[in-house]
Design a protein that fits this description.
Distance between the termini: 14 Å
Largest sheet: none
Shape: globular
Helix content: over 70%
Number of helices: 7
Strand content: under 5%
Number of strands: 0
Length: about 150
């Protein structure tokens, strides 16, 4: 069965998130010589893309943790999202379920972030919320489900 175009678009968006995490990891890796500037850049970079880097940048900024210690989680995030993107392109059902789980977790986190002011960093922008909801709707459509089931595990 052919891969739906919307799944290809979702995979491209996930590759963009992986690229963002990779770039964030590289910035954090080089942070040993200018830690204050780098953590501020990471915080702002995370605000733009919003895939975990915002929270990591805020931790590095507010807890006085050396930011170059945070490059490992960013690289792991990049690898995870890269694998998910490839899984979506190859119509692997595990990738579909991982995206569903990540979207649900982000939506729950956003709800907590909006309900409890203390968890401000968990809030998603309207664009992030829309992408998560659209991804969930897409991945539960019957034709998309059939494509992933026919794609094999």
């Amino acid at each position: 069965m052919d891969r739906p175009r919307a799944v290809t678009l979702l995979a491209v968006l996930i590759f963009v998130v992986a690229l963002h995490a990779l770039l964030a990891g590289l910035v954090l890796l080089g942070a040993s010589f200018l830690p204050q500037i780098t953590t501020l850049v990471m915080y702002l970079f995370g605000m733009i893309a919003g895939c975990g880097s915002q929270a990591l940048g805020a931790l590095a900024l507010f807890l006085q943790i050396p930011p170059n210690l945070f490059f490992i989680p960013e690289f792991l995030i990049a690898v995870l999202y890269g694998a998910i993107g490839l899984g979506l392109l190859k119509l692997r059902n595990w990738a579909r379920w991982l995206v569903i789980a990540l979207c649900i977790l982000e939506l729950i986190g956003a709800a907590v972030g909006y309900a409890v002011p203390r968890f401000l960093l968990l809030r998603l922008g309207i664009f992030g919320l829309a992408i998560d909801v659209a991804a969930l709707i897409l991945l539960f459509r019957p034709k998309v489900k059939e494509a992933f089931e026919a794609g094999g595990n």
